[in-house]
Amino acid sequence: MRVILLGPDGQLGSDIRWAHAQAERAFDLIPIRRSQLDVESPDALDQELGGIEFDVLVNCTGYHKTDEVEGNAARAFSVNAHAAGRLAKLCAEKGARFIHVSTDYVFGGDAKRATPLKEDDPVAPVNVYGASKAMGETLAQLAHDDVVVLRVASLFGVAGASGKGGNFVETILKRSRETGELTVVDDQTMSPTSTADVADILLRLLRERCPAGVYHAVNSGSATWFEFACEIVRQAGIDAEVTPCRSVDFPTIAMRPPYSALDNGKLARQLDRPQSWQDALSRHLQALEA
Question: What is the pLDDT of residues 192-206, one digit of tens each?
């Protein structure tokens, strides 16, 4: 089996490559970088991928700088939506499976939500990034009947978040050590998730040839950003005070979902229940120290 990986140097792509290197080589993994392929160009996609034989295409690439995206909607929909549809069409023409990485940000419009969202809950994005990713899911599934959509959330990995200057865990570790005090929003609930665990999930779904469809590939449990920060500081053994605040106290260009925790029950039935985000965080902190 030949698997193409787009976005191989990002936070998730890096862990996919690492997990593949550590696992039994059940398939060949072929990374294709942004410097080799302009995903915003339909012609480039046809020319570069049309001449390659592959069985699966994994799409980890995307325009995910949430605040920046608000002022660049055209590019966001080009990369996150139309490119996804085009890639799915190419896979359909080759009889290949398309695995598309999406986000919990396709949700958020139900401000009164208090229970984790399932795969068949209606999407309701609250920002341009989420809207472009929601459209990408739709266009991909319209173009091909063998599409696996993996919705991930609040990712943290050793490689850091590509183009974002680190991830939330790195930010909390740095600021808590430097200042000894933090103020973190406590009215946004999500599913903290390790990219190492998502990579393992993806490889297992590949090997076991899971049914097409949408899966919530997140660690078990949910937290507010304040609760997440408190656990990071506690597990890292840092003497710092973490104070909760409201999101209105720290306004951002793009609105964030007040609730976007994901239910991973479907994934648990296909494989097994992913570990809790607290356990994943513990393993991540150990990896940072290694």
Answer: 999 999 999 999 999
3-state SS of the chain: helix, strand, coil percent to 5?
A: 45, 20, 35
The predicted-structure confidence for 57-109, as pLDDT tens digits, reads as follows 999 999 999 999 999 999 999 999 999 999 999 999 999 999 999 999 999 99
How far, CA to CA in Å, does 36 sit from each of 6, 8, 83?
A: 10, 12, 15
Nearby residues of 289 by Cβ (< 8 Å), 6 or more positions away: none
Only one residue has tokens 């792509």, namely: 13
Cα separation, 258 vs 275, whole angstroms: 24
CA gap 266, 260 in Å, rounded: 17
pTM greater than 0.90 (yes/no): yes
Buried b (16+ CB within 10 A) or exposed e, 76-91: bbbbbbbbbbbbbbbb
Residues forming beta bridges with residue 193, ordered by sequence position: 155
Non-local (6+) Cβ contacts of 88 within 8 A are: 98, 100, 139, 140, 141, 143, 144, 147
The residues assigned a catalytic role are 129
